Every structure is written in structure tokens, then in C-alpha cells.
Amino acid sequence: MQLPQIFTRLLCVPDCAFCFASLRSREADPVRPYVTYGASIACLALIASTLPTVLPFHYPMFTRSSVMRVLRLLSRIARIASCGHSLGSSSRSLVARVASAAALAGVTLAAPLVHAEDHVTLLTSWYAQAEHGGFYQAVATGIYKKYGLDVTIKMGGPQVNGMQLLAGGQADFLMGYDFQVLSSVEAGIPVTTVAAAFQFDPQGMMTHADVTSLAGLKNKTILVAGSGRTTWWPWLKAKYGYTEAQARPYTFNLQPFFADPNVAMQAYPSSETFQAEQAHVNAHFFLFADDGYPPYNSTIVTMRDTMKNKPDMVARFVKASMEGWKSYLNDPAPANALIKKDNPQMSDAQLAYGVAQLKKLKLVTGGDAATQGIGTMTDARWKKTFEYMVDAKLLKPSTDYRAAYTLQYIQNAKVMP
User: Fold this and answer.
1) pLDDT tens-digit map of 159-181
2) Are residue 62 and residue 194 in the same domain, yes or no?
3) What is the pLDDT of residues 362-399, one digit of tens each?
4) In this structure, are 102 and 39 located in the same domain?
5) Which of 115, 133, 155 is the last residue of a domain?
6) What is the DSSP string of 32-59?
7) Does 110 share its domain with 170?
């Protein structure tokens, strides 16, 4: 039974019948209905005063929205009581006390809700950028607050071990990556992915204009970062027959690419391609996901203990974050202001370029998200990622890949693009 239904049962009358019952009762006795409701409301006020303390521990199925519906119910009761303007002075005094009781019950219940927000820390995967925009948007526009969450976003970076910080309790949620989570599960770290903001990994290849597909790199030098050797590079080699002899280290310096038309390099659509455009270099970008690269990206990862002990908080964070992404793609200005505050090196031009790429590639709204909602994940996609990692000898076949994710939260979020 839902919380509002329980309250109306306590009054022994359906919520929608309050007003009609009041009008009929007044024809026979203009005072009795208010006395009856006054007693009922006094009981409700007492019950309401205990709800913020009792519900979180003993009745976790009661959500914040249920409690807020009770507040609206109490407000309607107060308005019913206040309609006794035609009664005598003593009756009006009673009505006033009844209305005050209802208001007191509402205030008693509402006050703890206003001040009892869950304090949550999200650790991102890199310096603040457009790829983090949905989370910043949920902070900037008050979406997290709407769901009773006080969220602090901390930036990741090249020297930040996000998984270690998450496991150590320094963050409640981590912007993660499928390979990272599966490897952590293999190592015995109890982490789980609860949503995927990006339906596709934005990793891809930037080439010069003469290359027309990923299959056209057999005679090219390919710049690969250290992290790429344990993620996408084995996939690319296996798919197109490329060799280690073609690979050179990528040091996040684009000059070798600019200087040599025979060089291709790993790239993100909002970073390296932006720099190439600024340098007036004619380049092509190929998203690995378009050729079948399976992992999700910009996922929300948390500890299993967090899901066990705070399931409602996790559900609210997931839904609010996906609403943040939807809002960001409609109007990125609020989040971009916070992004630039955290990362002053991020320019308006690069943020605008990044948002345009998110939309063009449909990283947030494409794939299964188009029909199932932003952040959605599927068993089939996780299985493909697991099988690729096993085939590439990046993961032991005995790893319980199903422990790396859960669909229970995102299936209930239903934030459509």
C-alpha cells in the first residue's frame, strides 16, 4: 500500500471524498464533521511527526514523492476545514484549530525533508568538460535538489585513481567505464554499474582526409596511448589485421599528426578533432562504436554496499542524473558555467563544439536510449563487452560479468530523450 493511501485509510474515507463528505455532513450538523476531522488530523499530526525518523529505517519502500503527496493531502484537509466561515464563533474557533493542526502536521513532516538531503559525492573521469555536462547540469539547475540530493562533483585526472577512491569511501559514485568495472570485479572489488550516460564509447580514430574508413589504415602509423593498448587497440587489430609494428606511443601531442600525413591517431570527438579544426587541418573522425566496438561510457558506478544500504538514494541519483543529461542537451548554459569554474582552461568554443558532437553522434540519445530512455543498458551489450575482453585476454573467462552491472535502477528511471 502506498503512503498516501495509508493516510486516507486512517481517516476512513477516500481522499477524493473529503470535500463531498464535508458538505453533506454540514447539512445535518455544521460542527460535527470538523470535530471528527479535527480528531483525525490531530492523530495524523502525531504520526507525521515520526515519519521522517521512522520511514527511512523501517519502511524504505516509501519514497520522497509519496511523502510529498501526503503533504498535499494534509493541505487539502486544511482547506476543507477552513470552509466553515458560516458557522458561529465557537465553531469558527474550532475550524481554525483544525486547520492549524493540519498545517502543523504538514510543517512537521516537511521540515525534516527540506533539511535532510543526502550528501553525495560524484567523482568524474577527467577534468570538467562537455562529456560531464549532464551531471553538472543536474547541480546547476537544482535537479539533484529536487530529488533530495546535495551533490558535490569532484574532477578526475591523469593522477587520480577513481576506482581506488570509490572503494575507499572517498566518493559515492564514479563516472566509470565497462572495462574498468569488469577488471575490478575480476580483482574482487565489489563495484557495480547502475546506468550508462553514453550509449557508445566516444573513443575513435582521427585520420587525414585521404582515409575513408577504419579499414584503410594498413599502411599508416597509428598513435596509441598506454590505456588504449588494454582497451580498443586489441579490438582494432583483431578486426582489421593491424600489427604492433604500426603502433607508436601517443603522448597527447598533436604535432606528429599535423606534420605527417601518414599518421593516424586515437581521438575523442570533442578534443583532438577540435584542436585539428582550430589548426585548420582537414581531418576525418571514425567512431569505433560504428564498427561494433561494444562498451558503454560515462557510466555511473557505485559500491554494492551503497546499493544495499541506500537503494532509494541510488535510484534518485540515477533518475536525477539522466534528467540532467536531457536538460543539458536542451540548454547547456547552466552546466557550462560550472564546468568553466572547475576547469578554467575550458573555453566556450570547445564546450559548444563538445555539445555539438554529443548531439551529432547521439552518444546520449542514440542506440537503445532512443526507445528505452537515457542511461539504459542491456544484458546483451554487457555480454558482448565481456566476450571481447575474454577473447583479447584482457579478462579471465571465470569472471562473473553479471556482477559488474544491474538494470534495476535504470529500468525504473524512464527518462526519455
Assistant:
1) 899 999 999 999 999 999 999 99
2) no
3) 999 999 999 999 999 999 999 999 999 999 999 999 99
4) yes
5) 115
6) HHHHHHHHHHHHHHHHHHHHHHHHHHH-
7) no
- What are the two backbone dihedrals, phi and then psi, of residue 326, each rounded to the nearest 5 degrees? -60, -45
Per-residue pLDDT band for 300 (boundaries 50, 70, 90) equals: very high
Cell 568538460 locates to: 129
Same domain, 187 and 219: no
How far apart are alpha carbons 185 and 122 in whole angstroms?
Answer: 20
The DSSP annotation for 58-75 comes to H-TT--HHHHHHHHHHHH
Give the three cell numbers for residue 162: 577513481
Question: What is the residue range of 86's domain?
Answer: 3-115
Residue type, 39: A
Q: Which amino acid is at 386?
A: F
Q: Which residue, 387, 238, 180, 214, is CA-closest to 287? A: 214
CB 257 within 8 Å of CB 263? yes
What is the spatial distance between Cα 228 and Cα 272, in angstroms, rounded to a whole number?
15
CATH code for the domain in which residue 284 is found: 3.40.190.10
Q: What is the domain count for the chain?
A: 3
Is residue 89 very low, low, confident or very high in pLDDT (cuts 50, 70, 90)? very low
CA–CA gap between residue 45 and residue 361 (Å, rounded): 53
Q: Could you give the angle at which helices 348-361 and 333-342 cross, rounded to 10 degrees?
A: 130
Is the model's pTM score more than 0.85? no
Report how far residue 356's alpha carbon sits from residue 58's, in angstroms, rounded to the nearest whole number. 47
